[in-house]
Amino acid sequence: SGIDFEIIIIDDGSPDGTQEVAQQLEKIYGSDKILFLFPSGTAYIHGMKFATGNFIVIMDADLSHHPKFIPEFIRKQKEGNFDIVSGTRYKGNGGVYGWDLKRKLISRGANFLTQVLLRPGASDLTGSFRLYRKEVLQKLMEKCVSKGYVFQMEMIVRARQMGFTIGEVPISFVDRVYGESKLGGNEIVSFLKGLLTLFATT
Fold first, then answer.
1. Which of 48, 113, 140, 145: CA 20 to 30 A from 201?
2. Under DSSP, is residue 132 helix (H, G, I), strand (E, B) or coil?
3. So which residues are the signal peptide here (predicted)?
4. 127 exposed, middle or buried (CB, 10 Å; 0-12, 13-18, 19+)?
């Protein structure tokens, strides 16, 4: 790629074989390129401590987020000198594959409500596939208080509030083949509470 990179894999005890794959990658690319961590707190904070680059791309490791979009994120960042480049499922040729109607309606509904109440200036608030300028990510992490699904939304809303610039790249999100989504009734209630809190405080 011609890009100097490192990959930080953060495993929170997932039973899906992440450890074995990380160890194989370390053998192939060397420990200077592959860093495998067990978090002692929030994965973002843990990963950020060890990241040595000027930019950080955050993504799920189950291939719901395809690595082929990373060069597009980098191109977009350079093109507009953006502080954040966010993957969007709801713009251009972006999309979601493998979700049932209920999950699609929840995601669409969450984004619609957020757009109406918060006017964030970005089309996909609940996705987590993003590129951040490292110092911007650090400042946002200091400001954000949410957990779970609201966290991604708060990151974008706070970024706008703090005057950071946001670009978007359409992505295809493919639902995980193995494992279960953690989205349930409690998460939906938490999301709505978080949304109203942000509406009241931003």
1. 48
2. strand
3. none
4. buried
Q: What is the mean pLDDT of the chain?
A: 85
In the DSSP assignment, the letter for residue 68 is G
Domain with CATH 3.90.550.10 in the chain: 55-201
What pLDDT shows up at residue 195? 79
- Show Cβ contacts of residue 116 under 8 Å, excluding neighbours closer than 6 positions: none
User: Is residue 179 very low, low, confident or very high in pLDDT (cuts 50, 70, 90)?
Assistant: very low
* Whole-angstrom distance, CA of residue 152 vs CA of residue 141: 11
Q: Which tokens belong to 171?
A: 């992505």
| 90 half-sphere exposure, CB direction, 13 A CA radius | 17
* Amino acid in position 98: G
Residues 6+ apart with CB under 8 A from 168: 76, 85, 86, 87, 88, 91, 122, 123, 124
What is the fold, at CATH topology level, of the domain defined by 55-201? Spore Coat Polysaccharide Biosynthesis Protein SpsA; Chain A (3.90.550)
User: Distance between CA 52 and CA 35 in Å, rounded?
Assistant: 11
Closest of 104, 105, 126, 103 to residue 114, by C-alpha: 126
Q: Length of the chain, please?
A: 202
